[in-house]
From TrEMBL:
It comes from Lactococcus lactis subsp. cremoris. The keyword Methyltransferase applies. Specifically methylates the pseudouridine at position 1915 (m3Psi1915) in 23S rRNA. InterPro entries: Alpha/beta_knot_MTases, RlmH-like, tRNA_m1G_MTases_N. This is Ribosomal RNA large subunit methyltransferase H.
Amino acid sequence: MKIKLVVVGKLKEKYLKDGIAEYVKRMGTMLPLEIIELADEKIPDNASEKEAEALKKREGDKILSRIQTGDKLAILAIQGKLMSSGELADFVKKAEVYGTGNLVFVIGGSLGLSDEVYKRSDLQISFGRMTLPHQLMRLVLVEQIYRAQMINRGSAYHK
């Protein structure tokens, strides 16, 4: 099994790239992490609700094209389930032990995720009610995935 992170938008800030690269490197001996960046749809100024939904659907189709049958899908959604690091570790462990595919985490674009992605998801995770920049959220999620693996291996990192 592999852990995949499917994200909409390109990472721009060097300090975020460096932080993510460090955690990816640390995970090299555990469950490997693959990051798949998808191009975001350009949102015209004053886009109508119908146009925004069409853009969100196109991004959703790109996301779903990267999900395989048997993959366990966890999406980040502000209205999702609040979880502790331990609960996330349990989710990762169960996917590792009982899964038939990969464990895929998704961070959508600025418009959010399409209904189709929500319907396909196995878990919706919230990191709180605050809005965080998607690029920063990517670093936070990668750190939490690393932390989950360390918890599952009995490491002192979590303490």
